[in-house]
Amino acid sequence: MAAKEDRRASIKLTTVDDLFTTEETRNAPQKEQIKEIPLADISDFLDHPFKVKADDAMLEMAESVKQYGVLVPVLVRPKTDGGFEMVAGHRRKKASEMAGMESIPCIVRELDDDQATIIMVDSNLQREHVSPSEKAFAYRMKLNAMKRQAGRPSKENAAQVGQDINGKYSVEILAEQVGESRNQIQRYIRLTELIPPILEMVDNKDIAFSPAVEISYLAEKEQQALLETMHAEDCTPSLAQAQRMKKLSQDGKLNGDVIFGILTEEKPNQKEKLTIRKERLSRFFPQDYSAQQMEEIIVQLVENWYRRKQREREHER
Predict the structure, then answer these.
(1) What is the spatial distance between Cα 90 and Cα 244, in angstroms, rounded to a whole number?
(2) Domain stops at, among 111, 129, 162
(3) One short Pfam family name for this protein (predicted)?
């Protein structure tokens, strides 16, 4: 008799609520919810490598947010000391601020540092324009996160740091994911060793990518001396010159005088060229004129001067 009562007690009867609700509704509390969170409560991702600029595209996004709101929720994670950290959606947050919004729709997700880093990098690499410096720091952050996720091997297996269960290195997996070669990933990461002014020159295409990689092996003081010489002489190193400076740096023979000598030497097949600093000309042109527009006007003026001189010579005959 007692055993029969125990069996009855163990049977769980379906409640009325269970009968008239769907499985999706019953699982809803376990799913991620979209919440409106004040912008003031959301901080940027720590060491976020991607620039959020108030450019024309951002102005357009802000105008769209003003008219229609944020259509795709951002992804945030809770902070231990309160508030939230942005994981994916920095541009939407900036556009919302510019549009005068006070809050933004968010998906709140519990993520550890490595998970958040990988999502942050992946979401931003989808942008149409990603600068070399952004790629450099993003690749480095994601690769370090992937290595930590792969686990720390024992000392006997130290050479296998960053391998997954299939024996692939983290850098190989990253290369496959972003469509770059393993070597190119490592070359991008080298750029993080450049001092900020030289890295900015790479972003602005004032220095080519390959010479910049070689320059990254120079010590900070050597890079600073190189920067000063480039500005003073209005020139940048070729790949061959950058490789020579790298070798001299490794041999402890590189200094400011050597850098000056390398940069000012005549390059093979180099033709003499005339360079006029933009600062000397900009006062004669409207502020919105590009270098190309300025060049076209200067050439036209020189051509007019040349024709006038030709006519004067003909009259003298």
Answers:
(1) 41
(2) 111
(3) HTH_ParB
Within a domain: 42 = yes
The domain boundary, picked from 64, 95, 111, lies at 111
CB-based contact 263:230 (threshold 8 Å)? yes
> DSSP for 7-70?
HHHH--PPPHHHHTS-HHHHHGGGS--EEEEEGGGEEPPTT--S----SHHHHHHHHHHHHH--
- Of 83-92, 146-155, 171-180, 268-277, minimum mean pLDDT range: 268-277
Query: What order of strands is seen across the sheet that includes strand 74-78?
Result: 34-38, 103-108, 74-78, 84-88, 42-43
* Tens-digit pLDDT profile for residues 148-187: 887 754 333 333 445 554 567 889 999 999 888 999 999 9
Buried-state track 38-75, b at ≥16 Cβ within 10 A, e below 16: eeeebeebeebbbeeeeeeeeeebbeebeeeebeebbb
Counting the structural domains of the chain, the total is: 2
